Amino acid sequence: MLEQLTERQRKVYLFIRDLIHNRGYGPTVREIGEEFEIASPNGVMCHLRALERKGLIRRSKREARAIELLGDTGPESLEGLPLAGRVAAGVMHEAIEQDKRIDFTSLFQRPGCFVLEISGDSMIEAQIADGDFAVVDPNRKAVSGDIVVAQTDEGNATMKYWFPEKDHVRLQPANSTMEPMYVRDVQALGVVVGVVRRMS
Q: Crossing angle of helices 29-36/41-53, nearest 10°?
């Protein structure tokens, strides 16, 4: 498929793919323009439309960063793990074996979903710890009380509870030792819809 692209389209596609795989979400039109010194947003949009026509990406009309790679599962793809049964976390009872598999991708089968690795403990009281992996839905509109990935105009990103107030947004940590952040120019890149923790 890449051989059908012009050299510039190939570079733009690889740039998008690299950010989605390594940062967790795609670039804005402005970021693509800056990376390739394309002055006009329309110039960037021409490349994105070409990549869409060739079946390599799909863009959301509602979210600036919601670019989904098509036909590219990335370096890591879950194909399902065996469901061995249930085990009590309270009163003990007999563990029952089951012959099923759980495909975790099916739990988050929404266009554009991406994963971010958590760094820090500001959301620890929401059971989101350092080293966990958060599944983020960029197409879901954030409402008050959602846990979101928020980004300021300066490009700084953080995961916090989202509380829009009069002339700012309160980004509330789930850690009683930390103070909330009050910001004006901020957008929710997506809503957290799941958390995966590796125990060892």
A: 100
Secondary structure letter of residue 13 according to DSSP: H
Q: Are 122 and 181 in contact (CB under 8 A)?
A: no
C-alpha span between 139 and 14 (Å, rounded): 23
% the chain with pLDDT above 90: 20
Tokens of 11: 């570079």
Q: Residue 182 sits in a domain of what CATH number?
A: 2.10.109.10
Q: In this structure, are 122 and 177 located in the same domain?
A: yes
> What is the percent of the chain where pLDDT is above 70?
74
**165: in domain:** yes
- 101 vs 5, which has greater pLDDT? 5
Within this chain, do residues 117 and 64 fall inside the same structural domain, yes or no? Answer: no
90 band by pLDDT with thresholds 50, 70 and 90: very low
- 122 flagged as catalytic: yes
CATH at 43 = 1.10.10.10
The pLDDT assigned to 160 comes to: 93
Catalytic residue among 160, 166, 176, 200: 160
Number of domains in the chain: 2
Catalytic residue among 119, 122, 144, 166: 122
Enclosing domain of residue 147: 111-196
**Which structure tokens are listed for 148?**
């979101």
pLDDT in tens, 12-63: 988 888 888 777 778 888 889 999 998 888 888 899 988 888 888 887 765 5
